[in-house]
User: Fold these one by one.
Assistant:
Number 1:
Amino acid sequence: MLSESDAQARNVGYTENAATVDRNKYSSYMPGQTCGTCSLFQAQADGKSGDCLLFSGKRVAAAGWCSSYSNM
Ligand code: SF4
């Protein structure tokens, strides 16, 4: 799993819990956005995590979020 303290994760404000996003710092965040609804997310069978195309080789939390969120 990707750690919130990972340097690349910190660069994009990754958090394992989207409810904790600092909305002053990340004004692009919209309530309801999570890794689980991001187009870069590839869900795993457990439903709680998935691969992220941004962080190749590391899983992210389905309930997480980062500033590279995309719904395209
Ligand atoms: Fe989550 Fe999407 Fe950011 Fe990857 S790019 S960490 S799936 S919000």
Note: Residues 7-11 form the longest helix (5 residues).
Number 2:
Amino acid sequence: MFEKVLIANRGEVALRIHRACREMGIRTVAVHSEADANAMHVRLADEAVCIGPARSADSYLNKPAIISAALITGADAIHPGYGFLSENADFAEMVEKHGITFIGPTAEQMRLLGDKITARKAAIEAGLPVTPGSPALESIEHAKEWAHKIGYPVIIKAKDGGGGKGMKTAFSDDEIAEAYTMARAEAKAAFPSDVVYMEKYLQHPRHIEMQILADKYGNVVHLGERDCSIQRNHQKVIEECPSPALNQSQRKEIGDIVRNAIQKIGYQNAGTLEFMYEDGKFYFLEMNTRLQVEHPITEAVSGIDIVKEQIRIASGAALGYTQDDIQFRGHAIECRINAEDPETFAPCPGKITEWHAPGGLGIRVDSEIYSGYSIPPYYDSMIAKLIVHAKTRNAALMRLRRALEEFIIMGVKTTIPLHQEIISQNEFIDGQYNIHWLTEYMNKRQKQK
Ligand code: ADP
């Protein structure tokens, strides 16, 4: 087992990884930007190294600085968390070349699955159902041709896309030129490549994803699904596990398909296969080759610590259990709480003057915030994840309502009021929602004002 792990991230996920290491008797190295000198992940780690100025490009994305920090402190492994360099195959390769273990899949697997076009191809070969789609699009005319083959509506996506960026829908020939041009421009600004492709646009799907764990010896288990259909701008807001839309046999069916596919691909470490689910059918979207923000709801229901498993697998340990050993208990829901204006969604960095997190049975709060902490303006606006777990979905909803009421964050605006509003809507209470529900609800509400 590793003796020292460097955590190449910040915020709540850096703390999350530190906690897993601590419980495994592994020492931790935090890295931080100049703006994060007072951050909680820096305070808790055994050692800390400043890797550059505030801008992410100069610090948390600065590969040589991070690898130098690992070499200077003698870390055996690097955990990348999510975001930043977590899906950067070149970084994984550099880390390994320096004799340090990258906690994640191999660079080759990351390249295959990180590109949406090659990932779709691999998924088809491995027996996963996918949406009808095109190869890389070369021109507006080419896009039009494919839109006719697939049938409107279609969605044009960046092959290197992520975070909901670089995606544009078109409902007719009139919209295709703009969708193509905009998707390419957005891709060019945000990603290494501006190559785009097209998929059939599903009109009322749910977003359901499967968490898997795979060791280096071909053993694969799935830890059930997460329903992440409550979204704003293609970004997840609330997630729950299990999905209110699936029954036990549907779960087993997609679970078996996914396990087979992962075995065929030869993937190792933790990963998530994202699907659209519409009219009883699954369509593979993409695979995330890293820890997901919403992993705690799966941990609550499966009782498995996904970060510890990532570390164990990377160190060469076998899973040591089979699918039949995994039991799912109860229901879990996560709210992503952002320092944002809940009406306009404008980021709201600043000093936290008072902080009181909810507690009690079945409550987990993952956050880097403490009273007196100043949220820097340079990074993602998520400041806390509230996770509730209870025996039934109803009990989890009651617990979530209670926990949101108890949460006190003063000094900055947060999206807590928005969460309170969402969870009191009948569609949410009944579990009857799809990926468009939140946007439609917000638009309706706006009009009524
Ligand atoms: P990213 O990598 O940017 O997160 P994804 O491919 O995972 O992009 O898609 C993110 C979200 O965009 C999905 O959860 C869904 O809301 C929407 N989306 C993506 N593809 C489709 C599609 N073919 N039909 C309908 N919605 C889609």
Note: Residues 176 and 200 are 13 Å apart (CA to CA).
